[in-house]
Amino acid sequence: MGRGRAPCCEKVGLNRGAWTPEEDMRLIAYIRKFGHGNWRALPKQAGLLRCGKSCRLRWINYLRPDIKRGNFSIEEEETIIKLHGLLGNKWSKIASSLPGRTDNEIKNVWNTHLKKRLKSNEQSSSSSPTPTIVSTANPDQDTPSSSSSETTSISIPSNLDFDDFNDSIDEILAIDIEPEVWNDVIVTEEAEAGEKRNWLAYLEEELGLFDDNGAGDDDNKMVEMVVVGEGDPVTSYFHKSYSSPSPV
DNA sequence: AAGTGCTTCAACCGCGAGCAT
DNA sequence: AATGCTCGCGGTTGAAGCACT
What is the pLDDT of residues A65-92, one digit of tens each? Predict the structure, then answer.
């Protein structure tokens, strides 16, 4: 308090809401090349119409390479429950004990799954002689069972080789680009990379990502910007964003 | 098939902490 | 010591997807 909170950004003229694949690509590419010394200055330098806070959040929670995507294992859930019992809503502290997991993700898991489960367990334990606290209701998979989209990730075919695409990104990154001209480089050169077209065709065919009713160029561009490399943040993005292949 | 309600989770908001000046 | 600035955290929101009717 009394420390004069500066507005995180001028909100006018900045994008808000869901990140587009192109924005993700810009952010990833910029951070891979220049790092993120100053979040406030980053979006301008990277040519992003986002506030620094938004960039930071996107990177931390979603794009950084060491993010572990996918559902939480039983062990992870047990850890969360234990640590929450000790620490309360100290999500970042809890997250530090779960490598690859973010505070935001843990918070969501707690609020959507674990809290409810504990509650129902408490209720059932008061009426049942066998109180079992922690465990997912779905032992067949390492996901908490609940409704709908528990299985949000698809399994990428093992023969997919992301390295090719990653190489082209590396080539781009090897070019000494002034941040001011970053815009043009990303959008033109990279978008023209021929091998990406092959990737797209391959992915669409293999994964049935799109129905062919003319989803439009934008949708195609989505995938184009999304597939980067195994273990790469964008692959994680891919998992999330295209988790429910539409039946072809 | 369409409508409605529920669930999930990515993203936003506001605040406090901590560092620099 | 006071002030300004950035970063990180935790709470909350709302769009999208899903299940149910």
Answer: 888 888 889 899 999 999 999 899 999 9
pTM of the model: 0.62
Neighbours of A83 (CB within 10 A): 19
Residues A175 and A211 in one domain: yes
Measure CA to C1' and name the residue nearest C18: A148
Is the CB of A54 less than 7 A from some atom of nucleic acid strand B?
yes
- Domain count of the fold of chain A: 3
Name which of A57-61, A177-181, A243-247 the model is least confident about.
A243-247
A248 touches strand B (CB under 7 A): no
List bases in chain C with any atom under 7 Å of a protein Cβ.
3-12, 15-19
Domain residue limits at A235: 163-241
CA distances to A212, A214, A220, A223, A224 from A217, rounded to whole Å, are 11, 8, 5, 10, 10
Distance A17 CA to C20 C1' (A): 29
Q: Which residue has the tokens 């561009």?
A: A221
Same domain, A29 and A95: no
